Each structure stands twice: as C-alpha cells, then as structure tokens.
Amino acid sequence: MSEVVTASLATAEAVAAAAASTQPKKVVVRFRSIGNAPILKKSVYKISSAQRFQALIVFLRKELSYKATEPLFVYVNSAFSPAPDETVYNLVRCFGLENQLTINYATTPAWG
Amino acid sequence: MDYREGAEQKTPLKKVWMGMIPIELQLAAADAIELLASAVLPEPFQTFYMLAPRVGYLPFISSKIRERWLDPMLALSGPRIPNEQSIKEADMWFEYKNQALKWHYPVGLLYDLLVGDVHRGDGELPWSLTLHVRKLPTAKIIAQPSTTLMRDMFMAVIKEADFIRNGSTKRVMDLTKSDQMQFLDGLETHSYEKYFSIHSIIVPPTPTQSSFAADHRALALSASPPPSLSAGSSKPRGTQQPKAIPVRFYMQTSGTQDDGGSKDGGSAAAGTANAAGNGGSGSATTSTAATNSSAGGGMLGAAKQADITQYIVSQVPIPLYRDEGSGSSADMTTVADAFKLCYEITDQSNDAFVGNCVCISHGVCVPWESPIAWLAENFFYADCFLHLVVISI
C-alpha cells in the first residue's frame, strides 16, 4: 500500500488515499526468543508497515541464518501465529502497543 | 436439510452456518495429461459437482474430491507414472479465472470476493472452478494445503479472534484436547451441533443477544434495514461483554495492489509460516515458475473481473458502542462506523460510500446501519471473524 491506490468506489478513492497517507510508513518490531531459540544481536527493528507477516518471517530467518527446512515458530504477543498474508499494519493496529509489535519466536511450538 | 418449523431452525445463525455453494470442478488439462495414462478423461469423470459449505475451507473438501473423483478416475484410466496410485491432498489447489484460490480463506468469502453480481443475488452458480494437482503456486498461496495445516491455521485464527475479543487467548487455550478436536471435527464435517457446543465456550452468549432475539425473524437474511432498536431495550451491562469484535473488511479498488505475493516472491519456502516446522517432512515443494504464465491472463480482465489483489484488507478491533461509556442502543457501532474506523475516515460527515458501495457477507448485502453487535452474534464465519466485502455499485 505504499503507493496511493486509485479506487473505483466513488468515495473509496478518498478512503484509500486517506488510508495510505495516515498509515505510519514504519513500525517498530521487537523480536523475543523463547526457549532455546537463539537471541538476535539486535532485537528491535523498524520495518515498513505495508509488509506482510511473511516478509517478517523471512527477515527473521535471515537474521538467524536459519534454513527454510529448520523449524521456526513465530507468534504475536505470545499468543498466536498470524497468517503469512496478513499485513504488519493490520497486526500493529490490532495487537500492537504504541505502534510497536512484539514478535516471539521458538524452535518448538510454544503456544499451540 | 430440515425445514421443520422450530425456533432454532430459523435463526440467521443456523442459516449462515448451513449456507452452501454448488461447485463445478474441471481437472486442469495439463495436469490430466501428466496424471493419466489415457489422453482423455474416462467418461463419467469429466466434471465433478459438489456442495461446499460457505463457512468451510477448501482443504477439507479436497479429501472428498480425491476419494470420489480423482482416485476412481485414476483407477479406471491408470496412472501415467506406474507407481503413482493416489494424489496427495497437499498438492491439490483450486483456480477461478486464472487466480489461485487462497485456501486458508473461508469458501464463502472467496466466492463473495471473486464472483461478480453476488450483491444482485445473481452470482455464478454453480461456481466453476479448475482443480490442479500439480505445481502449487507457492508464490501466491501458502504451501501444503493439507487438512492438518488447515486445522493448525484455523486454531491460530480462532486465537487471534479471541485476543481481539478478550485481550488474551485464554478461552481457546483453556479448551481441553478433546473439546478442541470436537471443534475442529465440527468444522471439518460441517456439523452444527459439534461446532457450536464448543463455540459457546469460546464465545459465551452476551447480554446483547437476548435483546436482539426479537429481531432475528425480521432480519433473517433479508436485505431490509434492521428495525431501529426501541428505546426501551437498554440492556444490562453484563460482564460478558467483549472488549471488541474481530472484523475484517475487504475493500475493492480498481488498482492492483502491490500484493505480498509478488513482493515477497521467492520466499516460497518460508511462506508456510510455521508450516515448515509442523509439516514433519517439510520438504520444499516443486518449482513455482510455471504459474507465472497465467498471470498475464489474469490481468487482462482486471477492469471487470474481480482480482484478489484488488482488495485492501483492513482489520481493527471494533468496539460494540461508539462511545465506550455508553450502553444505549442508539450508540451502537454500525457497519458504516466500523468501515470508517478500519479505513481511518476521520471526517464524520463523509458518508457518501453508504450510497455508492454495498457491503456483502455470506452472499447477502448487509445494511450499513446494521449494528456490529448483531452481526457479531449471527453473521460470523467459523473463524469467529466478521468478513465484510465492500464493492462499488
């Protein structure tokens, strides 16, 4: 949603434009390891809010130098795993605190 | 289906749950050639018809399709590769007009998003889909659409909904193993009794429910606006009142959104989120390159044909009342209010969208002035979310 989306809806064009402009471009993501998952050198990152959750997982795997086949379980707020296609912006608005999202990760399932 | 008279039979809740979509399936030609020894499909197997529950998910119907259509077809025709006697459900995926269907979306939602003229009550029936058993497009949809992964992802969404509703996932986490199995079995087998006996534990009836009971009949699946709640119906402020309602809007735009699918392309293996961990074998799926060829076809009709990437999905916790302190029915959050919250329309007078757009849920136009509280009791999908599709008219 980085670029303004032209909407076919007579008013939704305004809606979409407004939504795009009010969105904070960056949100703060705080990574916390659980159990024996390795700790990141740097645990707080700013990322674009238009990203999908999937991108966040990819990023985390890269930082941990984890291969795709190695198990990694990623949660929001020590509670649940969002679908990979949910946007970070929606997650922050629903589950963030002051524009900050807490991500927990583990090598074994932690919360079901 | 049972049409006997009875109070329960008539509730919108049950009508929504029982909603079905007739589906007409063709096997993708290229896949049939690869799969079968014979060049043409054997006679009774060219097309497959079935009813799919709106609240259900595609991976749950895959096993039926395999058992009743693909396996007998394969047995009759003989497989091209001698030792391939059966098709893996995790390889099965569905396509509608050159788009791979996101299998982790409820079936009814996919239909409302992609089929035109639903709001006129004139959607495509039966819904004509193409079944693929090769080359899962993992850049566009999540890999390994198995029932196991679907069950896991479903429990994750239920927790997400619980978190929005109550601020924690305690209600779902406190379910016993057998309750959880019953809940999932109820979903998978489309059993109203099994599902709702557990649903009532996760989402206990709220005080608002009784006050809406009288409106059930009048509102039942009609497009008429809900009767304004009488002043006398102010309800007791119960302790069961949820903090917020899990609502997801899908707003159609004419532009093609920069979807994660293309942006994150190449991340296919990681795209399964926790799936790689859960999958056991976790083997990376086959190449995804072949699917790109269909992308061009999808773009051609973009102006008329609904495309999944045209939708801006927005989700915020929706409070039951506009003003938190208020408990009066006049202050109940409406669908229009929720839409404004989701898309951050701060201009309170900007209500033009009410006349220009319709809001669809379960194939029905939902009046903009419907209270979210009523919808939350009656129009939720199995994942406890309200999925509301907004399109221009």
Q: Give the mean pLDDT of chain A.
A: 83
Number of strands of chain A: 4
Residue windows where pLDDT falls under 50 for at least 5 positions of chain B: 213-239, 257-303
Q: Strand order within the widest sheet of chain B?
A: 2-1-5-3-4
* Percent range of helical residues of chain B: 25-40%
Q: State the secondary-structure class of chain B.
A: alpha+beta
Quick one: how many beta strands of chain B? Answer: 10
The radius of gyration over CA of chain A amounts to 16 Å
Instruction: Quote the CATH topology of the domain at 8-141 and 283-298 in chain B.
Output: Ubiquitin-like (UB roll)
Placed side by side, the strands forming the largest sheet of chain A appear as 2-1-4-3
The profile of the biggest β sheet of chain B is: 5 strands, mixed
Describe, in plain words, how this protein is organized in 3D.
- Chain A has a four-stranded mixed beta sheet.
- Chain A has helices at residues 12-22, 53-64, 88-95; strands at residues 26-33, 44-48, 73-76, 100-106.
- Chain A has a single domain, classed as Ubiquitin-like (UB roll) (Roll).
- The longest helix of chain A has 12 residues, at 53-64.
- Helices cover 28% and strands 21% of the residues of chain A.
- Chain A has 112 residues and is of the alpha+beta class.
- Chain B has 393 residues and is α+β, with helices and mostly antiparallel strands.
- Chain B has a domain at 8-141 and 283-298: Ubiquitin-like (UB roll) (Roll), CATH 3.10.20.620.
- Chain B contains 16 helices and ten strands.
- A five-stranded mixed beta sheet of chain B has the order 2-1-5-3-4, with helices on both faces. Chain B has a five-stranded mixed beta sheet with strand order 7-6-10-8-9, with helices on both faces.
- Chain B is globular.
- Mean pLDDT of chain B is 80; it is low at 213-239 and 257-303.
- Classes of the chains: A alpha+beta (112), B alpha+beta (393).
- Chains A and B meet through helix 1, helix 2 and helix 3 of A and helix 5, helix 11, helix 12, strand 7 and strand 10 of B.
